[in-house]
Amino acid sequence: MAELDRSLHTLSEQGALILDPGFDNIIAHAVDGFVIHDTRGKILDFNQAACDMLGYSPEEFRTLSVADFERDLDPGAFWENMSVDEVFTVEGTHQRKDGSTYPVETRVGAFMNDGKKVCLALCRDITQRKEDERALKTLNAELKEASERARQANRAKSHFLANMNHELRTPLNAVIGYSEFLLEQMKDHGESRYIDDLERIHTSGRHLLALITHVLDLSKIEAGKIEISLSEFDVGAMLSDIATTAKPLADKEGNTLVNAVEGALPPMRSDQTKVRQILLNLLSNASKFTQNGEIGLRSRYDAASDAFYFEVYDNGMGMSEAEMAHVFGAYNQADASIAQKFGGTGLGLAISERFCEMLQGRIEVSSKLGEGTRFHVILPRQAEIPV
Length: 387
Description:
The chain contains 13 helices and twelve strands. With 387 residues, it is α+β, with helices and mostly antiparallel strands.
């Protein structure tokens, strides 16, 4: 169709229906139908492709008017009002000699011939395009429906798990609390026969509670049931509390815990509970995969970006490039052997990433096998509640 645009000026200057040899050759051998007609629609010239498309012989076609095969449009007004060298595209329906129809796209341009305006139309059968569009529309509708069903199923799952908070935690807290009470009673009375068993019950209960908490937290995030609660707090005090909480985790694996602060830290306005959980999840992860090494938390405030930068590092087993690529995936574990050895659901990092996003921040990771891992958390000094 670009040939039509490039040739209109030449045609208007020639002032006759005799086309230059090059363009005449293009028309004669084109797979699309070329039709020249006056502003009333009377056929003046055409190519063989136009005859073939509509099923007429050249002799029959020469006697026709555009109105004899155009079914949807009445472009007479367009033809009368078209200026020379103006080109437009329109879609319609053509009817063949046998009565069958097909969709057509027509590119129309006007030029002067012997002082009269005539139109050159390039007609293209777009049956296949329309069929492809219908097929694509149907496929998109099916995909949209399938996607909506998947979202509904996921929401139902998330709502179910989120609502299990009370039903799951209440009996577990009772098991943990009662086992603690019995342990204290046994120790106070000097009885040691069941202490090992009670400690196993207590440890297993706390481990199960931690797993359930992670599952429920992620489900509440997915269900949109976790809200942001903003308040201003002392970052230094929070970091000291985090270090105190994380130290037993580090001691358990023979690790040294370092809590380093660079420069002064201004107050932060954010969700303190979530910031605390992000950093504790990372320190817990570092402690789990490091033995007799060093884990640390470095913190600083950058005035230029008005953000806090937290780095949780370790010199433990590290990760490969492939493992880092999906480290923040929900329910992700490096491999079956690591999952069996270290336990967990693989949700801690996924939850940390979601919380960072909720607080308008981000989390990044770098690691080398056998050398350790570093997680970088960047959070704005003042978070906002998403609208």
